[in-house]
Amino acid sequence: MRKIFQKLNADTNEVVLENKVIDDNMAVIDGRLAYATKEMAIAVAEDLGCDKYHEHEFEGKTWFMPCEQHNLKKPCSKGYEQYGMKMKNGKLVPNCIPIKR
To answer: For 23, what's the count of Cα atoms within 13 Å in the CB-facing half-sphere?
Structure first.
């Protein structure tokens, strides 16, 4: 998978995804992946269990994000947190890792 640009928040020690165009097909906006086409965003939305897509303007281009709005439901089960995205069965899905205590 492509490297997603990250920085460490010095106050919380959390990894934060930087707003950045990754390539012609993907960008990170507000810490979330955005896609170049509606079809790509809808396919990810279906994997996430939500509907449709919404749009963002970033660096002079319209990008498409899964779901009608930012999904407020956490994508990972209790005891796990999302750490970026990963490829699973040819699809991009949330990468859920155990929460360290």
So the answer is: 5
DSSP notation for 38-78: HHHHHHHHHHHT--SEEEEEETTEEEEEESSS---S-SS-T
| pLDDT tens column, 1-55 | 445 555 544 555 555 567 889 899 999 888 788 999 999 999 988 888 787 899 9
State how far the Cα of 78 lies from the Cα of 13, in Å rounded to an integer: 21
Q: In terms of pTM, does the model score above 0.90? A: no
Q: What's the rounded Cα separation, in Å, for the pair 12 and 91?
A: 31
DSSP secondary-structure letter at 101? -
